[in-house]
Amino acid sequence: MATQIATPQYNVKDVLDKLRGVSFIGLDIETIVPLKGGKANPMNGRVTKRVSNSTVLVAQNKTTNTYQNMVRNRIAGEILTEATEKADAGKGMLLDILSQAEIDELSAKIEAALEAGEDERKEAAEERFQVKPRKWGERIPNSPFIEHTKVGDVHPNYYLDTIWLRAGTTEFFLDGNPIAEADIQGYEKPVAKEAANVQGGLKVENQVIVRSIGLDSILRIKTGGVDYSGVFYYA
């Protein structure tokens, strides 16, 4: 009779206990894929998506909101880029009129003006984006964890709040067996949207990706050079 090896179990608070402020960790997760078609779709509830070797940021948010700061910094960066592009276009129109010395002098004045406008860009970013209260769950103070009790449940569920910096390799499974994305019935790949009410109007490529990952979806955490693979819980 083969000996069964028990799956390691980790208290996620202990795993991430040494992290301070804002930290980077490696993450593997596997989640159920939402499909169209409801009960009529024979694959509904049977398809999972596994994303391996991702790099995410977790923050304790003790004195500031990391997500809000990142969005505002990117908004300010976009404002600066737009101003720089307009200035460069204006200089291009004057190349045939001004001497090189005059162009150099104009460039220096433009750079000084852009640098002096940093406070104005920060103020504009603050006006364009304010973090709204969570629609569900409560953040556990001074930690990256979310506590949420679903309707009808007695005990709360716990989630790890993450900011995604680099998504890893994606695989799909049907009943635990690999399946090609194109063969999944009723699956539509999520598409990021650009709008004034989405992160202050940030362009899609600059948006900050935030996800609250249920602990039951986490397969592996890598932090401090150590790999933790198994079942994660909060206690």
What can be said about this structure in brief?
The protein has 235 residues and is an alpha+beta fold.
What does this structure look like?
There is one protein chain. The chain is of the alpha+beta class. It has 2 domains: 9-65 and 132-233, no CATH class; 67-128, no CATH class. It has 4 helices and 12 strands, in the order E-H-E-E-H-H-H-E-E-E-E-E-E-E-E-E. The strands form 2 sheets. Strands 2, 3, 4, 5, 6, 7, 8, 9, 10 and 11 form a 10-stranded antiparallel sheet that branches. Strand 4 and strand 5 (145-148) form a beta hairpin. It is globular. The two termini are 35 Å apart.
Which H/E pattern describes the elements?
A: EHEEHHHEEEEEEEEE
Alpha-beta content class = alpha+beta
- How many distinct helices? 4
Distance between the termini: 35 Å
Counting structural domains, the number is 2
Radius of gyration over C-alpha positions, nearest whole angstrom:
24 Å
Proportion of residues in helical segments: 25-40%
Q: Sheet bearing the most strands, described? A: 10 strands, antiparallel
Portion in beta strands: 25-35%
Shape: globular
Number of strands: 12
- Average pLDDT, to the nearest integer? 85
Low-confidence stretches: none
